[in-house]
From TrEMBL:
<protein>
    <recommendedName>
        <fullName>ADP-ribose pyrophosphatase</fullName>
        <ecNumber>3.6.1.13</ecNumber>
    </recommendedName>
</protein>
<dbReference type="Pfam" id="PF00293">
    <property type="entry name" value="NUDIX"/>
</dbReference>
<dbReference type="InterPro" id="IPR020084">
    <property type="entry name" value="NUDIX_hydrolase_CS"/>
</dbReference>
<feature type="binding site">
    <location>
        <position position="110"/>
    </location>
    <ligand>
        <name>Mg(2+)</name>
    </ligand>
</feature>
<feature type="binding site">
    <location>
        <position position="114"/>
    </location>
    <ligand>
        <name>Mg(2+)</name>
    </ligand>
</feature>
<dbReference type="GO" id="GO:0019144">
    <property type="term" value="F:ADP-sugar diphosphatase activity"/>
</dbReference>
<dbReference type="GO" id="GO:0047631">
    <property type="term" value="F:ADP-ribose diphosphatase activity"/>
</dbReference>
<dbReference type="GO" id="GO:0046872">
    <property type="term" value="F:metal ion binding"/>
</dbReference>
<dbReference type="GO" id="GO:0005829">
    <property type="term" value="C:cytosol"/>
</dbReference>
<dbReference type="GO" id="GO:0006753">
    <property type="term" value="P:nucleoside phosphate metabolic process"/>
</dbReference>
<dbReference type="GO" id="GO:0019693">
    <property type="term" value="P:ribose phosphate metabolic process"/>
</dbReference>
<dbReference type="InterPro" id="IPR015797">
    <property type="entry name" value="NUDIX_hydrolase-like_dom_sf"/>
</dbReference>
<feature type="binding site">
    <location>
        <position position="162"/>
    </location>
    <ligand>
        <name>Mg(2+)</name>
    </ligand>
</feature>
<comment type="similarity">
    <text>Belongs to the Nudix hydrolase family. NudF subfamily.</text>
</comment>
<comment type="function">
    <text>Acts on ADP-mannose and ADP-glucose as well as ADP-ribose. Prevents glycogen biosynthesis. The reaction catalyzed by this enzyme is a limiting step of the gluconeogenic process.</text>
</comment>
<feature type="binding site">
    <location>
        <position position="94"/>
    </location>
    <ligand>
        <name>Mg(2+)</name>
    </ligand>
</feature>
<dbReference type="InterPro" id="IPR004385">
    <property type="entry name" value="NDP_pyrophosphatase"/>
</dbReference>
Amino acid sequence: MSERNEFSQQDIEILDEETLYKGFFELKRIRFKHKLFAGGTSGVVTRELLVKGAASAVVAYDPQADSVVLVEQVRIGAYDPQSSQSPWLLELIAGMVEKGEMPEEVALRESEEEAGVKIEHLRHAISFWDSPGGVLERIHIFAGKVDSTTAKGLHGLAEEHEDIRVRVVKRETAYQWVCEGKIDNGIAVTGLLWLELNYRKLQNDWR
């Protein structure tokens, strides 16, 4: 199997796109054709696409205490009256990348807005597509050194209806909560698994 994709962006032909809704996010309907593995071109494919753009998240890690700073807030997508699980989720510090912003800038800004902490030694960890079958969103996860003793209290911007509680959790505990499903949102799971694979290197670099 080839290590490189044989197809590129030019192998999709956009026939038309229509904005169905534009609010906090934008919903589009797109009709397109694409090249086939067996050769030739597909028929017309119609998909609805939720356009979110990009977001930055931070694995805020304290190498001295071996702890990670998480935030807790309500998420309407996790609301299910039939479920016993709470829609208040434990997450990484995160925020949307606005037009003209760099993902690194958002990571630093959101760390202060959501958790009241300052990040040192920010480094890129991993970037990935979030559910690209129907969502346009690129997630950028960073790791940063933090003094977890400064992380406390309630935060968030009132004009954005944010109600955020800061939680400082031992790294081993956070990883265990991922394994148990107590932390079950994709960005936090990805970031905490990355931390479990890389925390020794961070400790060596940051101590």
